[in-house]
Each structure stands twice: as structure tokens, then as C-alpha cells.
Design goal:
By secondary structure, the protein is an alpha/beta fold. It has 2 domains: 270 residues, QueA-like (3-Layer(aba) Sandwich), CATH 3.40.1780; 100 residues, no CATH class. Helices cover 25% and strands 25% of the residues.
């Protein structure tokens, strides 16, 4: 049954001065709140390895933020901003980034009313020779309100990934209320970012430094990666009072067979970030799909709540592994719209590292679900003790509470 949840019950007073507008000088010098057994303690992020259980796997999302924000001009002089969300043609990220003359993307269109379906030319206020030689143009193929399908074309044979590197800007969150600056190209990216595709950073990972990662390994905690490309939906507030009316956007993810096999060992799983949680918990429902239909299907938003499932976590994971073996595959590729709200049954993740999220957001709902509804204890403490909030803010280490 879809839970009856009212988003106004997940509000708290977040003023603008509590939002971290810039990262700290050192990634691991941020504050760290630990929530365990109903108690809250304060640490510094570099203390994290000492607070983790020895016999565990730590899971990181190795997606990489792309410079997905592009500024164009009409011949009339009107400025149009295009924010690339996901590829349309080719539909695979790696193929779209490898394209050397044209590709199409679903985009959010800024100043959409001013675009009359004519060809747009990339803004080049600094008269860069490199930008001019690329000659990036945009054509509107289809429109859907403030979004649309846009075909990009260019003329120097560079792959689109390199075109974005030269022509695009890192899409920092809108609540920072500032333009992208040079520091964001380094710090709005995790140290272990590897696979291009996100338009927002998995921000829980922004705190990790080489020394913290080394100490985690020295402690004997294994590190694994998944990849979920974070979509612009991460910025969307829940606008309806009843959460059942909120629509989650699809996000693609990839998990390797070798990691799935390790999950069967039954040791503690520490997820770095809500994107890692959503990926890991989606695996159960991918397994259910294979058990019931013989093939993996995207995880729908309310699948966890629609009925009781008779399968154990081990059965579901073995079904995914069996499907990969039967088809000669080394990784599962799927998509998820899963929403994690109070009442969700966690099947894989035991411990969560995450930042402090916006009021009345789906991420607050996830945190509440993870700590058995006790999210206010955590956020009240953070507000009262000078913690910094949102993407460039401080961090928390949460131990799961089952109720």
C-alpha cells in the first residue's frame, strides 16, 4: 500500500546563511554528526574510519559530473541556457559522449519562451578561438514546457565529451545563488569520480580525501563502487502536500556481477550517499523482476510498497547473478525511480554517510526512513551546533534503525 505521507511534516527552518555556498579549504575538515542507537555525537570527517565497523563493505557512487550547462544566443541577441539532462540519440551515455559531429539530448531550457525554434549559436563573450573553431549549434527538435529535445552539432570532430569540457559549465545547485566558479570544477566532483553522466554530484562523497580512503582500507574495510547518474530531479522539491502525487525521475545505474557476489556474504554494507542507497536497494526489485518475468525491468517508484514480496534478499540477488551468467554479462544495467519513504524495508544497506538535505525533499524522507523516523533529532542537533547544510555542507554517519 502506498504510504500516506504529508511533506509539510518534513520541514525545518533552513535559513540562507546555513547553506554552505563554498567548500571548506580541506575536504575532510567538515563536521561529522554520528547518529547511533538513538544518540547524536559530533566529530570531524577525518575521524570517519575510526567510527566504522571492521567487517564491512563501503560502497561509493563513481559517477562523474559533466559540464552540462551551456549558454547560447539567438541572432536577436536573446540568451538561452540549455541544461543537458540525458542523451536521446544515441541513447547510451558513452555513445553520446563519443559522438563527433552531432547528438541529441533532453534539456531544460532557460528562457524557453524566447526560443522560436531557430538555430542557436554558443555564446563566446571572451572570443575564444577554441570555442569558435568548435562552432557548437543547437536546434530544437521537440518541446515539453520548460524542457525539450535538442540536437547539438559541431564541426571540428571532437567527441561531445570534449566539446562540453570546452564549452560547458559545471551545473552547481541553484540554491547556491551564484555562477559556477573555477573552484567548482575541482570541488563539485568526488576524488574517485570516473564515469561521466551526472548533472549533480553525489555530494556525500565530496568529503573523502586520499588519507581518509587510505585509512578505511588500512582498517580492512573493502571498497566497492556502483554507478548511478544523478539527474536534475535531485533538485526538484516535492510540490504536492501528499507525497503519493510526487513523480520521481528515472536514473540509470550499473552494478558489477563481482560486487553482487560479494553482497551475498552478508557483511555490513556502508553506503556513501543517498544515490548509493537507491542503487543498492533497487537491486532487490530487479531480482524480483527476473524471478517473476525472466528479465530485469526498471524499478518503478512505488514498487516497494505495492505488495508483500515472498523472496529473500539472497534469492533476489542470486536471480540477478543467474541472469548475468545466463546472458554472458558482467554487469547489470537498469534504471530506477524508487522513492524511499518512512515504511520502506531496507534489505541491503546498514549504515549511511550523507549530507544534510533540503526541507520537504525526498532525501529527508529517505533519511527519516533510515533512522526509524527520528530525523528531527539529527536535524535539530545540526541546527543547534553550527553545522553547514546542503551540497558543500557538513556530513552525517547514520546507523539504521528498523521499526
Amino acid at each position: 500500500m502506498i504510504p500516506e505521507i504529508h511533506i509539510e511534516d518534513y520541514n525545518y527552518p533552513l535559513t540562507d546563511e546555513r547553506i554552505a555556498k563554498y567548500p571548506l579549504a580541506e575536504r575532510d575538515s567538515s563536521k561529522l554528526l554520528r547518529y547511533k542507537d538513538g544518540k547524536v555525537d559530533d566529530f570531524v570527517f577525518r575521524d570517519l574510519p575510526d567510527l566504522l565497523p571492521d567487517d564491512a563493505i563501503m560502497v561509493f557512487n563513481d559517477t562523474k559530473v559533466v559540464p552540462a550547462r551551456l549558454h547560447f544566443e539567438r541572432e536577436t541577441g536573446a540568451h538561452i541556457e540549455l541544461f543537458c539532462l540525458e542523451p536521446v540519440s544515441p541513447v547510451e551515455y558513452n555513445l553520446a559522449f563519443a559522438a563527433t559531429d552531432k547528438c541529441s539530448w533532453k534539456c531544460v531550457i532557460g528562457n524557453a519562451k524566447k526560443w522560436k525554434n531557430d538555430v542557436l549559436f554558443l555564446s563566446n563573450p571572451e572570443n575564444s578561438t577554441e570555442v569558435a573553431e568548435i562552432g557548437l549549434e543547437a536546434r530544437l527538435i521537440g518541446r515539453d514546457g520548460q524542457a525539450g529535445t535538442v540536437e547539438f552539432s559541431w564541426k571540428n570532430g571532437m567527441p561531445f565529451s570534449a566539446v562540453l569540457d570546452v564549452c560547458g559549465a559545471i551545473p552547481i545547485p541553484p540554491y547556491l545563488n551564484r555562477n559556477t566558479e573555477q573552484i567548482d570544477y575541482e570541488r563539485y566532483q568526488t576524488l574517485y569520480a570516473r564515469i561521466r553522466g551526472s548533472v549533480a554530484a553525489p555530494t556525500a562523497g565530496l568529503h573523502f580525501t586520499d588519507r581518509v580512503l587510505s585509512r578505511i582500507s588500512e582498517k580492512g574495510i573493502d571498497r566497492e563502487t556502483v554507478c548511478l547518474h544523478v539527474g536534475a530531479g535531485t533538485f526538484l522539491p516535492v510540490k504536492s502536500s501528499n507525497v503519493s502525487e510526487h513523480v520521481m525521475h528515472r536514473e540509470p545505474f550499473v552494478v558489477t556481477k563481482s560486487f553482487l557476489q560479494r553482497l551475498l556474504a552478508g557483511i555490513k554494507v556502508i553506503a556513501v550517499g543517498t544515490t548509493s542507497v537507491r542503487t543498492l536497494e533497487s537491486l532487490y526489485y530487479i531480482g524480483v523482476s527476473i524471478l517473476e518475468t525472466g528479465k530485469p525491468e526498471d524499478v518503478s517508484q512505488w514498487a516497494p510498497y505495492e505488495r508483500e514480496y515472498p523472496y529473500s534478499t539472497e534469492e533476489a540477488l542470486r536471480a540477478v547473478i543467474g541472469y548475468l551468467d545466463a546472458n554472458g554479462l558482467e554487469e547489470i544495467k537498469a534504471g530506477t525511480r524508487i522513492i524511499i519513504v518512512p515504511g520502506f524495508r531496507f534489505r541491503i544497506v546498514d549504515i549511511l554517510v550523507t549530507n544534510f538535505h533540503q526541507p520537504e525533499s525526498t532525501l529527508i524522507l529517505l533519511v527519516s526512513a533510515f533512522v526509524g523516523g527520528d530525523w528531527k533529532t539529527i536535524y535539530d542537533h545540526a541546527l543547534a551546533n553550527g553545522f553547514r547544510f546542503l551540497s558543500y555542507g557538513d556530513s552525517s554517519l547514520l546507523f539504521r534503525v528498523d521499526k
